[in-house]
Amino acid sequence: MTDLLSLYRTMVRIRAFEDAAERASQGGVQIWGQSAAPDAQPALVKGPLHLSTGQEAVAAGVCAHLQTRDLLTSTHRGHGHTLAKGADSTRMMCELFGRATGYNKGKGGSMHIADFSVGMLGANGVVTAGLPIAVGAAHALKLRGEDAIAVCFFGDGAINRGPFLEALNWAQIYQLPVLFVCEDNQISATTRSAPMTAGTQAASARAEALGIAATQVDGNDVLAVSAAAQQLIAGIRAGSGPRLLHALTYRHKGHVSVDPAHYRDPAEVAAALLTDPISRARELLASRGQADAAAQVLAQAQAEIAAAVATAKAAPVPLAEEAYQDIATTGQGVWA
C-alpha cells in the first residue's frame, strides 16, 4: 500500500496547479460571458482550460504504482495525470502560458503536453483518442518484450464512442499489457452522462462483455484507488492481459475554467464537495497524528506552483520566425 502522505502530496500538487491555472485563465475567453476574477490576471492563458479539480485521487492513486518506463496517455483534462506521472510543473505552466520554455515550446497548450522522458505520451483534445494510442503502445511493448505497461485515462463520455470498443477489443484479442482507467465524473462536457448511456455501470459491463476484468472503486478515496490500481497493475505485469478500473468521481468545476456550470444543480455540487478527495485524505492524516506533516506538504505544493507561475510569467514567448518549426505543413501560410 502506498503511503497516504505521499498520495496526499501528489493530490495537493495537482490541486495547486489547477487552482493557479484557473486564476490565470480568467478573462482570457469571453464566450462564456464571464469577467475576470478580482485576483486574476486576464489573458495569461490564451483560452479556456479543462481542469481536473476534484478528480485528483484517481491520477494519484493510479500513477503511484507506475514506473518511469511505463507509458501513459491522457485526455483533454490531463494536467493531473501529467503531474502524477512525473512531468515538471514549471514546464507545464510555461506551456499553458504559451511560452517558448514550455513542453511544446508554447505551441501545444494545455491539451497537448507530453514528456516522453517520464513515459507521458501526451494529453489529447479528441475524446477517446488516447485509448487506441495506449493500445498501440502496449502492443509495441509486447512485441519488443519490454518490461513495462501502458495506461490510459478517459472519461465516462468516451465509452459511447467507437474507439472505446475498438481499443478494448484489440487489447483483449492480443492480451496486451494495458490498464484502462475510466474517470467517471458523471458529466460529458455540459450534459449528464447517465441519460446518454445505455446499461448500468456501463464502463465495467462493456469491458467484462469482452472478457476484460473490471474493478469499480470510489474515485474520491485515494487509498481505495491506490489499492485497486496496485492489484490490477500487478496482474497486468504478471501477464494477465488488459484490465479496467472504473473510478467514480466528480469534477468540481465546469467543463472549462471559465464555465460557470449553471446547468448543474447547486445542491448536487455542494454534496459532491463534501466528498472532496483531498479533504478526506487530510482528515485521515490528522486522525493518524500527521496534521502538521500534511500542512507542510500543502505549503510546499503551493510554493512550488507559485514559483512555476512566476517563472512562466517571465519566460519568453516563441519567436515569430519559429512558427513553422516542429510542425508538419504543406506550405508557408499567412499568419493573421
Describe what you observe in this structure:
This protein has eleven helices and eight strands. The protein is α/β, with parallel strands linked by helices and 336 residues long. The strands form two sheets. The protein has a six-stranded parallel β-sheet, sandwiched between helices. Strands 5-6 form a two-stranded antiparallel ribbon. α1 (4-25) crosses α2, α4 (89-96) packs across α11 (291-314) and α10 (277-287) runs antiparallel to α11. It is globular.
Major sheet details: 6 strands, parallel
End-to-end Cα distance, whole Å, is 54 Å
How many β-strand stretches?
8
Question: Overall 3D geometry?
Answer: globular
Overall mean pLDDT: 90
Pick out the low-confidence regions.
Answer: none
SS-based structural class? alpha/beta
Name the helix and strand elements from N-terminus to C-terminus, one letter apiece.
HHEHHEHEHEEEHEHEHHH
Strand residue content: 5-15%
Total helix count?
Answer: 11
Helix content: 40-55%
- Strand order of the main beta sheet, please? 2-1-3-4-8-7
Overall radius of gyration: 20 Å
Task: Describe the structure concisely.
The chain is of the alpha/beta class and 336 residues long. It contains eleven helices and eight strands.
